[in-house]
Structure formats: structure tokens, C-alpha cells
Amino acid sequence: MSRIASVETFSTQFISIVRIRTEDGLEGYGQVAPYNADITAAILHRQMAPVVLGQQADDIDALVDKCWVGAHKFPGSYTCRAIGGVDTALWDLKGRREGQSVAALLGGTRTHQPVYGSSMRRDITPEDEAARLAKLQQECGFEAFKIRIGNNFGNDVDRWPGRTEAIVPTVRKAIGDDSELLCDANSGFTPKRAIEVGRMLEDHRVGHFEEPCPYPELEWTAEVAAALDIPVSQGEQEVDLAQFRRMIRMGAADIVQPDICYVGGISRALRVARMAQEAGLPCTPHAANRSMVSLFTVHLQSALPNAGHYMELSIEEAPWIDGLFTSDPFEVVDGKIAVPSGPGWGVEISPEWLASAERRASTL
Questions:
Q1: Three-point CA angle 34, 316, 284, nearest 5°
Q2: pLDDT per residue as tens digits for the range 29-61
Q3: Which of 2, 3, 54, 223 has the lowest CB atom count within 10 Å?
Q4: Under a CB-based contact definition with an 8 Å cutoff, are residues 145 and 119 in contact?
Q5: What pLDDT band is residue 155 in, cutting at 50, 70 and 90?
Q6: Distance from C-alpha of 300 to C-alpha of 302, rounded to nearest angstrom
Q7: CA 24/CA 5 separation, integer angstroms
Q8: Angle 194-195-198 (CA atoms, 0-180°, nearest 5)?
């Protein structure tokens, strides 16, 4: 195995693609978490590149841990986002070297992954949301959708009065009783209000209640989960593996949801998935946009023995992603997307997109 010779980033404010090359000329592509990605790229070059340059590229877990230990004085989101960029590029490189997809490297055999259409909007009326989801149901065969309720970190303040109580039955009626309906509060409620809303969701056969309370307040979420029959899902914002252990131990999640780009890559997300498996819980990784994070997620979720029934797939347009891939890896047919079978991630990043981004390189 050849040593890591260079770490490059290609960044906009929203996306930073990571390219790692070894001394024998092989390369792999990854991505840090979207948004403020140029800031994450600076951290990657300052704190992660010096750790991995000159190292063998095959032991990804060990390199990820070296990055974490090297940055232990700087715990938190940006550190893990930078580590995730290194990790995902190394997985692509490993797959290309071995001629296998990342899903295959992880033991996956599934060729297609069922997805739920994930709405990101709270500015939409219940009637308009219901209409567009029903249209997508007809066009793409989605069998499940997720909608937004409450308000992002709203502390019991709805986007407008009565929206939560109106949108759930309206969407349920539009998509029918046979479709899965999921709801995401994005840290919107205190426990009392979350329990009240959760019982309404149970009445409308909602499949999960995501992040009902502010995510740092694990005790609040555990209180909600204990009071409701509906599964409570949690974990997208967490970056600390010890916090995931606490979350699972205290019963603050019935469904565990690490975000591959937030938590620090495939290797660390796998550790979270295994914690969930040991506790008898499903793992449905968070993937809120159609950048590489959804690509990473389809490979991982298709290989998890405790994967949830559906993978999240955003239904929103995002101009900042336009042109990133040479072809669309997320075409939905009969409610499923194909698990890429080519080496590594099985897609190609557009050379034109890379040429238009800000390049920075750290070399051996």
C-alpha cells in the first residue's frame, strides 16, 4: 500500500470536495459537511492533513482516530466535519484500489435502496405540501415522506399558529393510509408540548417523531420517548461517540440517526450503527441534501444489518449542488434509488465543478 502524498480541497462556501492521492498515483474523493465548508477545509489542512500525510492509506479507522486524538483540544462539529472529509476520501480510494464499491467493502449486497422523500420546508402551507408530495408519489413511486412540524429550535413556537395540527392530517389524507408518514420537529418543543404533539402524531399513524426537543437536552427527549408509543428518532447533530452512548443508554432514541458528514465519516458512523445494533435499535443515517452525503449514506445504509426501512432523500432543489456530479446518482424509480456498483462511491465528480472551486493542497 502506497503512502498518502497529498490532500486537496475544492471549496465553495457550501461544498468542499476532498481529494487524497497516494504516491502510486491512485486517488479518492470525499466531502466535508455542507455549509461553511470553506471554513471546514481550512481546519482540514491545518489539523488533519499533517496527521495523514505520509501514512499508509489502508487502515482508515486508525487514521481517523489519529486525527481525532491530534485534535482532542478542539472537540466539536468542525473537527468532526474535517475528519469526515478525510475518511470519505479514503473509503473511495480503498474501493478504487480493490475494484469494489464502498457498499461491497462494508458487506452490502442490496442493489436498490428504498427512500423517503424528505421535505425541508416550513414556509409551505399544508395544502401546498400535500399537493406536491402526492404529485411526487405518482411520478416517482415514493412510499414514504417526511414533513417538518413545529419550528427549528422554536421552543413551542410553531412556524405559524396551528400549522403543526393542520399539516399532519392534510398530508396523511393526500398520500393515503398505506404510505409511511414521518415528522421532524428539529428541536422544536419542550417535553410537555412534544408529548402533546406526539399523541396527535400517533392518532395519524406517523412512523417516527424526529428530534422533538432541543438536541442537547437528552433528558428531555428521553422523557418524551418514554411517554409515547411512536418511535422517537435522534442523533443527526451529535458528533461525540460518548454522547451517542449516553443517548442510547438513557432511552433518548428509538431510532439512531448519525449524519456521516457531521460525525466524522463512514468509520465513526459505523461505530454508532453498531452501538444501536447492540441495543436492538435501528439506524437510519441523516442525509438532508443531495450532495455527496446522500451518496455516502446509500452505500452505508444498504450494508447495515440494522438499517431502517427507508433512507432519507431530500426533495428540494439546491442550486449550490448543481453540476457536482457528471450524472445524477439519485434518480428515484418505484420509490428506490440504485446503490452505485462501481469502484469506491461509483460516481464521478465533474472536472468543470472542481475547476470552478477554490483549490488548496497539502503535500508530503
A1: 65
A2: 999 999 999 999 999 999 999 999 999 999 999
A3: 54
A4: yes
A5: confident
A6: 5
A7: 9
A8: 85
